[in-house]
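Is heme C placement plausible here? Inputs below.
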Amino acid sequence: MKLINLIFVFFSFFLVSACGGSDKKKTVSTDQKITLSEKDLEQGAVLFRAKCMNCHMQSGKGIEKFYPPLAGSDYLRDNLEDAIHMVKFGSNKPIKVNGVKYNGLMPASGLTDEELVLVFNFVLNSWGNDYGSVTLDQIKAIKR
Ligand code: HEC
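Reply from A.M.:
I modeled the complex. Tokens:
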């Protein structure tokens, strides 16, 4: 084979492999850079509907003064570890979300660490939130 043919073959191979990527995946950049698949987000949405929606609403907006919003929440954005702690173990301390005070009771979710990864990654990337992502190790590290 002539060299020019070889180069051509090489290039077409390169092009095919470069375009064959999965555009269904959404890359969330954090320091660890993990990739969230549509499937993970869908599973997170199912958990959200079953375990969180009653209070935080389908829109993620909550009910002002009673149930804080997750959509656009500055608390979630700035206190992620604490937010995970609250969902994992329950919470009834006074907090302020987007300037509004809340002091309601959120019962412990009862979800496994694996389920918490899914539901948090859904919440962190829904309703316009672009708050990064969490890993199983991060969730596991949060103890009582
Ligand atoms: C029974 C109602 C209820 C349910 C169900 C519930 N929450 Fe909450 N959530 C609350 C209340 C009330 C607070 C404020 C708690 C406080 O003041 O300590 C809160 C606070 C939060 C916060 C921190 C504040 C904020 O708005 O950013 C996050 C994050 C959160 N919830 C996520 C979840 C997730 C995820 C689920 C489902 C696994 C869930 N919640 C289920 C009532 C609920």
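Short version: The first helix runs from residue 3 to 19.
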